[in-house]
Design goal:
Layout (H helix, E strand, L loop, with lengths): L5 H22 L17 H20 L2 E3 L11 H21 L2 H5 L1 E6 L2 E7 H25 L19
Helix pairs in contact: 1-2, 1-3, 1-5, 2-3, 2-5
């Protein structure tokens, strides 16, 4: 008997809604601004773009592996914008697949966030996966600020933007 989670389907729907706008942002990130940052304590453009592109993979990892260790997680090295967008698409695809197949029981299992093997957070997967979608939206928002500060046209996200007034 299948026991696919209705909650997984709900998170999937939310992730799909955010993926389109996120992809539009990533498509506009030029490689020549990778090192730019608005403040000395800010991430640079390249790091932030990669973070946004990789966050959907965290959903897959949470469901399938139950832990992430910041010290050992491997990061993709995009050579250009097209590779960054492709990486995002692959991560979205993996997250969609994981969410389509997740069971109720899996959502109740603990997820551990680690740094150098030390647990910094333990919480049910359900809480962390929901938080991850919000976290993705937060960092996409930061990305749009970086875009604006560099005169990169900001796409419509939840409605028209100053650069994309007629599209939803």
């Amino acid at each position: 008997m299948e026991n696919k989670s209705i909650y997984g389907a709900e998170v999937l729907k939310e992730l799909e809604a955010e993926a389109t706008a996120t992809r539009k942002c990533l498509e506009r990130i030029p490689e020549n601004l990778s090192d730019w940052k608005p403040h000395e304590r800010s991430m640079n453009f390249g790091e932030l773009s990669l973070l946004v592109a990789e966050m959907p993979k965290w959903i897959t990892t949470m469901i399938e592996e139950s832990e992430v260790d910041f010290a050992t997680v491997e990061h993709f090295q995009a050579k250009n914008t097209a590779e960054l967008v492709k990486h995002f698409d692959e991560n979205i695809s993996g997250a969609k697949n994981a969410l389509q197949n997740v069971s109720y029981e899996t959502f109740d299992e603990p997820f551990n966030l680690k740094n150098n093997g030390q647990i910094v957070l333990t919480a049910p997967k359900k809480e962390q996966i929901s938080s991850m979608v919000n976290h993705l939206v937060h960092h996409r928002g930061q990305l749009t600020v970086y875009m604006r500060l560099n005169e990169i046209l900001v796409p419509s996200i939840y409605g028209p933007s100053a650069d994309d007034p007629g599209r939803f």
